[in-house]
# Entry
Amino acid sequence: MGLTASPSKSLFVLKNIIKEWREINKDTLNRSIRNLYKSKLVSTESNKDGTLTLFLTKEGKRLALAYNIDEMKIQKSNKWDGHWRIIMFDIPERLKKIRESVRYHLKNLEFYEFQKSVFVHPYECEEQIEYLIEFYNVRRYIRVAMANKIDNELHLKKYFQLN
# Structure
């Protein structure tokens, strides 16, 4: 809005903001805000008009700065702990772009594509996966598991260059 000199364009943007706000699922928004507050990544401040302002805490700022979703990496440890991290997802067709983005990021994080919606990695990656889930708001569609044996483990060990 600040870049347009046209009052009609400004009104167009304002009308669309109002429309988009009405389409937001208020329960989901409130649940997301509560989860952020519980995670201690944000704090709140009450305003005189009865509204709340959310602020990133020191930890929230650290985490926000720690991850650039396009540059995230998983730290390889010197010794593999013998556990496979398995990410499974069933993101609906109506969210196809998000599904493809999640797949892209998992590949970028060097996960092995076990099946079209099942990815495997040998190293600790809980924080990165949690960030990805929150970034795309897809918690209900993604499952994370750990396994100590997979039937094609030799292929995976070779792929990840494990002993």
User: Anything to note?
Assistant: Residues 16 and 22 are 10 Å apart (CA to CA).
